Amino acid sequence: MVLWSPTAERIERSVLQEYLDWLQEREGRPFPDHDALWAWSVEDLDRFWVSIVDFFDVGFSVPWGEVRTLDPMPHTRWFTGARLNWAEHALRSGADDDVALLCVREGGGPAREITWASLRQSVAAAAGWLRRAGVRPGDRVCAYLPNTEHAVIGLLAAAAVGAVWSCCSPDFGADGTLGRLAQLEPTVLVAADGYHWNGKDIDRGDVVARLREQLPTVQHVVHVPYVFDRPAPAGTVAWDDVVADHMPLVFEQVEFSHPLWVLFTSGTTGLPKGLVHSQGGITLQGLMWSGLYCGLRERERMFTFTSTGWALWNMQLGALSRGASIVLYEGSPRGGAVWEVAARTGADVMLLGAAVVTASTEPPGVDLGRLRHVMVSGSALPTAGYHWLLENIGSHLRIDSTSGGTDISGSFVGGNEYAPVRAGRIGGRIAGVDCAAWDDDGNPLVDDVGDLVITQPMPSMPTELWNDPGEERYTDSYFDTWPGVWRHGDWVTFHPDGSISVHGRSDSTLNRQGVRLGSSDFYDVLDAMTEVAESLVIGVDRPDDGYWLGLFVVPAEGHAVDDALRDRIRSTLRTRLTARHVPDEIVEAPAVPHTLSGKKLEVPIKKLLAGRPLGKAANLSSVDDPEALRWYARFAADRL
User: Fold this and answer.
1) CA distances in angstroms from 301 to 22, 290, 306, 345, 376, listed in the order given
2) Which of 385, 398, 454, 578 lies at 20 to 30 Å from 222 by C-alpha?
3) Considering only 352-356, 438-442, 532-536, 551-555, which range has the smallest mean pLDDT?
4) Is 479 exposed, middle or buried, given 0-12, 13-18 or 19+ CB atoms closer than 10 A?
5) Strands 486-494 vs 200-203: parallel, antiparallel or unpaired
6) 314 near 261, Cβ under 8 Å?
7) Which ranges carry the Acetyl-coenzyme A synthetase N-terminal domain (predicted)?
8) Is residue 96 part of a domain?
9) Tens digits of per-residue pLDDT, 383-421?
10) 184: CATH
């Protein structure tokens, strides 16, 4: 059912139409709509990405030799020989006196406005400080920061120097943070003293102290006194001192594939994987996405409800390259706060998780007439969410459900200015993304559920996984099913009208409230509890658009899974990880079944809980304890 269609006037005013008109003249052929663009973009992938370079005037200080190498994924390299700097593109637009960042704190009063001139000066000062601290291209600068200007300035400064950035949100505990940042062996750590959530000031001084103790490669610690009025701890540098000096803004020119940042996966098996994204790939991805799909222009404003631990935080920064402002909100979404912030800051475009929309029950009671476009990510937006937005935010609104991920710091599928809005559907495929649904034998499917695959490379795919000699983990993660074809791990349906439905994960990854959670993070915490012999965590998408996060616990000898143990498990997970890690249900189980090589049977048990019969969920001959798996089959049958 079509809920909304674009007007001819809206299409005509769009950045997408401006690009299509330019492309039609350049190529000498018609591009009547986005469908024509997509078809051409995957037929002539190289020419499409060159058109993005030219239309958005990507500034290469050294020209490229070839658009891409002919090596199969994941070995493809783009724009070989070219040199550029991502931060230079992020900061090149925007008049000095215009606002670049609007910083809003939960319950914190008016937005703090940071002009482009002030942002450039702070980045120049921080980059100069990093250089004086000995940071060189390829060194790692890591952070433990909430969604504030400190994170944006820190990333831009690190990129200007050619350093590699990675940030964890302070709602992560020490263990989850160390499991990520320690892999990178950082030389600089930028850390805040706390954050705000649900009306509370959350102190993270103890976590930062542990990070300082257990990150032995860190030579410099920058203290950000964000929540508490405390002096900088001994042996640290105050943030104000880092950004105090007036310095020239110097951008290190690096090769296209030079690492920009490391985003971490959820850690479903073993340590979280560090996805290394390139300066060049993110420059192109950010310009295309913020321009053609967000439709942003200079002086417009984008508000993303996110934390620094979610890829949406990184994606929003593409708006800066368009000369648009970004709204940084630090706090919880309770009580309609996101809508109030969007109204107060005059947001033109919003990006948020579907869970924020579904949690909204009352009309926001604020004027959101300027808001033209709401992009929803993280999980599929339920049908009721579409109706709520159109009824309570405005019938003029373009609702754009998207799907992509940390893996590419972008989207594979989403809406566009030509696509109608259908309840429960994603508008279509993003230009340059050759994706499809395949069955188990690698045959394309239409109007049937299959595995989401990408059959041609994208510039924003990771250049590598961190510390992955021979690219073995990279290959195993995405290319183990079909060599040279990216298998993303989502169940999807491509409909005949071009729209797409995403049904959830086809692997064991947990996706709660739009945020992926790693099962290994749970196990790291629970294995240390003397009352727990073993545990198994499973997440299942429900037919009612809900999500069930279940924890199966095998109690240690002499213990039982009673209310007291359940309370302690919940408290421990909330304290050492995040509130999102607290399960919906804790179930006592007789055992946890494994493969013969010792891996927990997360995927087969997830399939049982999703309704698949035992014979199709697992091969009992490959299970170390078939009777234990039968127990889970009976548990699942009783629940269905």
Assistant:
1) 25, 11, 16, 8, 17
2) 578
3) 352-356
4) middle
5) unpaired
6) yes
7) 35-90
8) no
9) 888 999 999 999 999 999 999 888 999 999 999 999 999
10) 3.40.50.980
Q: Is 601:594 a contact under the CB 8 Å cutoff? A: yes
The neighbour count for residue 271, using CB atoms within 10 Å, is 19
615 occurs within a structural domain: yes
For residue 526, give its domain range: 507-639
Q: Is 361 exposed, middle or buried (0-12, 13-18, 19+ CB in 10 A)?
A: exposed
Looking at residue 281, its amino acid is G
Q: What is the mean pLDDT of residues 49-58?
A: 98
Q: For 570-588, what is the mean pLDDT? A: 93
**3-state secondary structure (DSSP) of residue 493:** strand
pLDDT beyond 90 at 426: yes
The whole-angstrom separation of Cα 629 and Cα 468 is 33
- For 229-241, b/e burial (b = at least 16 CB within 10 A) is eeebeeebbebee
630/272 Cα distance (integer angstroms) = 30
Question: How far is CA 639 from each of CA 122, 209, 576, 609, rounded to the nearest angstrom?
Answer: 56, 45, 30, 8
CATH of the domain at 603: 3.30.300.30
Task: Indicate whether 153 belongs to any domain.
Answer: yes
Beta carbons of 508 and 96 less than 8 angstroms apart:
no
Q: What is the mean pLDDT of residues 211-239?
A: 96
264-292 residue pLDDT tens: 976 533 578 899 999 999 999 999 999 99
What is the C-alpha separation between 385 and 129, in angstroms, rounded?
A: 46
Cα end-to-end span (Å), the chain: 29
Buried b (16+ CB within 10 A) or exposed e, 555-591: beeebebeeebbeebbebbeebbbebbbbeebeebeb
What is each CA distance from 177 to 51, 274, 408, 480, 495, in whole angstroms?
A: 40, 13, 21, 28, 40
Buried b (16+ CB within 10 A) or exposed e, 435-468: bbbbeeeeeeeeeeebbbbbbbbbbbbbbbbbeb
pLDDT tops 90 at residue 361: no
Q: How far is the C-alpha of 219 from the C-alpha of 235, rounded, in Å?
A: 10
pLDDT at 89 over 70: yes
Please name the amino acid found at residue 287: L
Number of domains into which the chain is organized = 2
Which one of 252, 275, 306 terminates a domain?
252
CA atoms within 13 A on the CB side of 340: 17
The residue assigned the tokens 């321009």 is: 291
User: Would residue 129 count as lying in a domain?
Assistant: yes
In one-letter notation, the amino acid at residue 1 is M
Average pLDDT score over residue span 477-490: 93
How would you class 216 by CB atoms within 10 Å of its CB: exposed for 0-12, middle for 13-18, buried for 19 or more? Answer: exposed
Which of 235, 252, 269 is the endpoint of a domain?
252
CA atoms within 13 A on the CB side of 248: 3
